[in-house]
Amino acid sequence: MLGKIKYDEFKWKSCGDLKVVALLFGMQLGYTKYCCFLCEWDSRDKKNHHVNKLWPKRTSLTPGEKNVVNPPLVLPEKIFLPPLHIKLGLVKNFVKGVDKTGRGFEYLRNKFPNVSDAKIK
To answer: Quick one: which of 39, 74, 85, 114 has the fewest CB in 10 Å?
Structure first.
């Protein structure tokens, strides 16, 4: 498919479902330990899921390391994050991890004034 759209010639930007993005990056599909294409989030480290806020950035997509099984088909900087998945939960998880006493959280509260205090807690 990438050959038909001449990806090597034009280096198109891509956007797709998280599964499609993982496929383009040569990652193993399904429930895997390191399923994120952006960082080395450990999906099996249940005790740190909502505690650890800084997961190390994924530095390479080398086959045989951290659930990468094939060489990547596209460049990581040519991928847009999939908006549907962002809307369905990534932003929600991001806001959960934001420091509640910091300026960033205060900005979000001011940006969405109709959100109740109960929902914020």
So the answer is: 114
Query: Mean pLDDT score of the chain, rounded to an integer?
Result: 76
3-state SS class at 27: strand
Neighbours of 75 (CB within 10 A): 14
Annotate 53-71 with DSSP letters as a single string.
--PPBP----TTSTTB-S-
List all residues 6 or more positions away from 19 whose beta carbon is below 8 Å from its beta carbon: 29
DSSP annotation string for 73-117: SS-GGGEEPPHHHIIIIIHHHHHHHS-TTSHHHHHHHHH-TTS-H
pLDDT band at residue 31 under the 50/70/90 scheme = low
Report the run of H or E that residue 22 belongs to, with start and end: helix 18-24
HSE, side-chain direction, 13 A CA sphere, residue 38 = 9
Distance CA(45)–CA(52), nearest Å, equals: 10
Tokens of 112: 């969405």
pTM (2 d.p.):
0.53
Q: What is the mean pLDDT of residues 60-69?
A: 78
